[in-house]
What does this fold into?
Amino acid sequence: MRHLIDHLSDGAKTALDAISITALVGSIVSMFPAVASLLTIIWTAIRIYETDTVQRWVAGRALPKDRPDAE
It folds into this structure.
């Protein structure tokens, strides 16, 4: 394989490098929607867990009435 690369012109090597970089960037960009979706799901789960209702379920008790954010 090394001998094949040695026989290519510098222009051909540059073109192949550009194609390789384009494929790499395309692969990374195609992963962004999946990563963003995963982070959104995690963030939403954290926000739901922080609600008073879920905290009452977890603690098994009612929140104190003198708490400022209690309804």
Observations:
- Residues 43 and 66 are 29 Å apart (CA to CA).
- The chain is about 75% helix and 0% strand.
- The mean pLDDT is 85.
- The two ends are 72 Å apart (CA to CA).
